[in-house]
Backbone:
């Protein structure tokens, strides 16, 4: 075990064999699993809701010239869960992993966050100098929780053990995902892992996801915002909020895509990311 110190934090990082995850301990004691592959400068992937590290189809297109680190957020995959969940705890998680990856590499890391993971990533980037470049794919900056009746339906499905139904309610009624895209996701090897995350959905959909202007203004990393041209309006609003708040920020639109372009066109999505990271 080594302890990486960054500012007031102390980050415990444990590596096992290359085929296993390594672990970072968050400030509240949560054990976060990180899965790594490839060679080259580091890139940390932070997944959103209904996901763990297995969601990423872009890894194979990036790992030829990047060391890609995919974390499991708390309560998913190989990570433990903390006693008192709040978005603030998850922001601290991402900061801890960023600083561990950067310490291991000897220089700042690039970060790519999707949806809820994008929201956490932009907030984390305002708190640490160890982010070199930041990519945010439709970060879930959503000032209002989902309607109580939607959250209640998700909770009822979870309580009854109907995890797949809970995930599909989210995809259809919150993300307004077309059936064709939902069918693509169902065919992916990561689908069972998505379904397994259902118990974490009610808590994430019951709180506002706010971006403090001062925190956003503290982001020094050049930032790329990726949006789907056909994505729901609340995600378009989120893009506008971040674009107007983060200093060095540009927006690219993937025409004809929605919230899962990295799944429906992983090679094309990875190309956009790679070009930005190369500067």
Residues:
């Amino acid at each position: 075990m080594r302890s990486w110190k960054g500012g007031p934090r102390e980050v415990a990082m444990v590596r096992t064999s290359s085929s296993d995850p390594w672990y970072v301990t968050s400030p509240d004691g949560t054990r976060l699993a990180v899965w790594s592959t490839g060679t080259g400068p580091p890139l940390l992937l932070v997944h959103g809701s209904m996901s763990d590290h297995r969601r990423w189809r872009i890894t194979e297109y990036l790992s030829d010239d990047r060391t890609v680190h995919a974390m499991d957020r708390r309560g998913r995959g190989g990570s433990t869960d903390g006693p008192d969940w709040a978005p603030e705890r998850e922001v601290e998680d991402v900061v801890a992993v960023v600083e561990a990856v950067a310490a291991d590499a000897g220089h700042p890391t690039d970060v790519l966050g999707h949806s809820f993971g994008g929201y956490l990533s932009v907030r984390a980037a305002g708190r640490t100098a160890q982010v070199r470049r930041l990519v945010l794919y439709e970060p879930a900056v959503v000032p209002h929780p989902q309607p109580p009746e939607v959250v209640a339906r998700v909770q009822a499905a979870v309580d009854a053990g109907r995890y797949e139904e809970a995930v599909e309610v989210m995809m259809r009624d919150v993300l307004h995902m077309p059936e064709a895209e939902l069918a693509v996701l169902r065919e992916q090897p990561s689908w069972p892992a998505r379904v397994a995350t259902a118990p974490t959905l009610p808590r994430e959909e019951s709180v506002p996801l706010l971006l403090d202007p001062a925190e956003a203004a503290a982001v020094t990393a050049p930032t790329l915002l990726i949006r789907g041209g056909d994505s729901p309006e609340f995600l378009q609003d989120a893009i506008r909020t971040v674009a107007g708040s983060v200093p060095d920020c540009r927006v690219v639109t993937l025409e004809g895509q929605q919230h899962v372009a990295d799944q429906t066109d992983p090679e094309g999505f990875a190309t956009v990311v790679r070009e930005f990271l190369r500067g």
